[in-house]
Each structure stands twice: as C-alpha cells, then as structure tokens.
Design a protein that fits this description.
Elements: E1 4-8, H1 12-23, E2 28-32, H2 35-45, E3 49-53, H3 61-70, E4 79-83, H4 88-96, E5 101-104, H5 109-135, H6 144-151, E6 155-159, H7 163-175, E7 179-183, E8 199-203, H8 211-220, E9 228-233, H9 238-247, E10 251-254, H10 259-291, H11 301-318, E11 322-329, H12 332-339, H13 341-357, E12 364-369, E13 372-378, H14 382-398, E14 401-403, E15 408-410, E16 414-420, H15 428-444, E17 450-453
Parallel strand pairs: 1-2, 1-3, 3-4, 4-5, 6-7, 6-8, 8-9, 9-10, 16-17
Antiparallel strand pairs: 11-13, 11-16, 12-13, 14-15
Amino acid sequence: MTARILIVDDIEANRRLLQAKLEAQYHTVLLAENGPQALEMASRELPEIILLDVMMPGMDGYEVCTRLKADPATSYIPVVMVTALSEMEDRVKGLDAGAEDFLTKPVDDFLLNSRITALMRYNTVAAELRQREASGLRSGAMEEASREEIDRPARVFIVDDDPRSSTRLASMLRAQGHKATTLLEAGNMGDLAAERVDVVIVSLFCRSFDPLKLCAHFKVNPVTRSISVIVVCDPHDKAKALRALEIGASDTITVPLDKQELAARIRTQTRRTRYIDILRQRVDRGLELSVIDQLTGLHNRRYMNGQLEQLMQRSVRGGKPLSLMMTDIDHFKSVNDTHGHQAGDDVLREIAKRLRANVRPTDIVCRTGGEEFVVVMPDTPGDLACAAAERIRKSVAAEEFPVLGGSRNLRITVSAGVSTLQGATDTIDELLHRADTALYQAKTGGRNRVESIAA
C-alpha cells in the first residue's frame, strides 16, 4: 500500500532525504519549501499524508497545521510534524495545533515507516466512509457535540501480564484524566465495543501469551476492528514492533514511557477511533434517511421500489402470490385547511401507527408521498390482500384521531385499492398502476371502501 505524501521543509537537503526514503518504499512524493506553498499544494493536490517541518521562516509549521485543519477541504489530511526540537513540550504543541503525530530529526527509518503505515491504514477506512457519506445523503458539517465527544478523556484497556508495569501505566493514564482498566491475561477480554473502549494498549513484553496474536485477533474481529491498538515495545526490538504494525497495530510507544508522549499518543489514537466511529454513525444515519420517511417512520418510495423488485422476482421463481395495497386518506386536504398542517401531520403519524398494527411482520409498509401509503404483501393472494385492506380500513374508521396534543378528535377514513402480481411479464409500474386504478374506483364509489383489480 502506497500513499501520496507532501513533504514541507525550507531546507532542500532535508526535503530530498525524506523524498529518497519515501520513494524507496514506492510512495509518491510532493515537495513544498514554505508554509504558503504547502497550503496551496495541499488544497490543490489533496495528498494523503503531510510531513511538515516545524521551524520554517515566516509561517512556521504550527501555523500551517492550524490553517490546514481549519480548512474543510484539507482538515481530514493527517499531518506529521517533523522537528529538530527534542523537548516534549514542542511536540505536544504540534499535536495541539491539530497534527496527528510527530517525528524527530534526524528521522529514524523505522519510525518514519511505522507512522506512514499506521496513517495509511487509518486513511483507507476514513476515506471509504467519507466516500459513502458523499454518495448518499450528506449530513453536513461535523456537529459540535461530535467534536466534544472526540475530545473527551479516553477509555483505555491495558493488556500486560506484569502487574507492576500495568499498574504504573494505569496510574499515569488516570492522572491524565483517562479511564484505564488493566488486564493481566489475554483471556476474558469482555465486550470492548459495548464498553466503548477507545484504545487498547498491549505490552509486547508479555510472556504468558503471544501479544502479536492478540493484536491480530483485535483486527480480524469485526467488533473490535475499529479500536486503536498501541503496542509498548523495546526500542531495540524494531522487528517485533514493525510486525505488530503489519498485523494491524495503530501505533507504537517505547520504554521507558514518557508521560507527555503517552498522553499525546493516547489523544491522537482516541481521536482517530472516535472520528471513524462518528463517520460510521453518519453514514448509517444517511443510509437510513435515504429510505425512511422522517414524519411517520415508515419506509419511503425509494425503499419500496427496491424491495418490490426483489419480491416480484422471488414470487415468479417460487410460484407464490404477491399483492399490494395502495391507500389514501379521504378528504385529507380539508384536515390541513381546517385544522392546520400540524393536525395533518398528527393524522399521518396515526395512520402509520394503525397500518403497522394491522399488518404482518413480513409486510412492507411505506409512505409513498403526501397522504398516500402502500403495503406490500408477500405470499398473499388477492382475496387475502383485500381482507387485510378491509381490516386496515375498519381500524382507521373505528376510532377518532387525536390531534393537536389531544385537544381535538377527528373522524378519519381511508380508501384502498388492491392489485396482485400477474406473472413474469408484470412490472412494478403495472402493479402500482392497477392498485392506483382500484383506489380511484374506491374514491369515486363513495370513499371509505376497498376495491381490487386482478388484471
């Protein structure tokens, strides 16, 4: 897996050195020599990762990073700060500006490749979710509540068979305001997803079980796949740390642990986990909004058409009947004109409620527009569909509808038309047209009645 990476450094020798290292790993490299040029190239080229020098004349790396994160077009691009400064405060300052990670000059090849690998894996998931969201119903900008959720203290699960080191690590995290849970054995992990764990820290020094096997388990399990995994490793055992990253670990941290670096890496991984979780929720919500009528909670026409096509094909192959009922509220316009649209909405919601109460779990109830509803009835011949429609009609007419918070009660009736699938050559449009024709006959025949057309 390779990436398009933008290197930003005012010193050409530094740019060329990083370029050579990255191109040796078959990455595509873009170069910028100052802050303004970096902002322009990031906006135009949309690289997948940005390696950003901190100490640059004019606009330094902190300001560049802040501007990148403030621009919706580039805010999602991971930024790795590259600095000659060794003080942890300087590194944390970069993370406060919005950077996802940091590297210290001279850049260690292992650390460079490990950070790039972790970010590429994160980018793959995030990009797919953003694409799904963009292709469906857009949810708008990230809500303020979501931003607050991203920045809340982390829920951390520590896996280490050394009680002293695990207790010490947990104490460090709790002192930083995080909720930390320790586990001395690999078994009985519990439901990490249900506990909404953000980060799992796995010690590669464990002897009672294979920590790499545990990392692999996390990443193949759909329930825990999105949880960030940080491995604690020996700085001299790069091969094992690299293997952990290849398996799926999100990040590495070496012993002895630095409190500030630990805080920075926990915060970075927590933000990634929660950002992915929020993106998934937004995609799911967008998919739901695309097939659900928001007023009544019933399925909409788009969903009905997709399901109806599949059910018709199944009916033809299996030789089983399929019927459809189309119903319309009688004199609905007068409800809106006399009592207002709020009363009309109350009526629509109550109709939906009574429809649900009088159909089978296998039936599909949809609001197809305005005051029109459709019930798709699999494995149902025409006579039984008419009986079901009659049951629904009586349920609607039997009791008055409370509207406007119960301050008024209205007498509501519906008319219905029923049609049945006529064979392999029948189409959705023809099936709906026959039901609509039957509904028209019910309306012209006096309303509050059911009519059917067999063919």
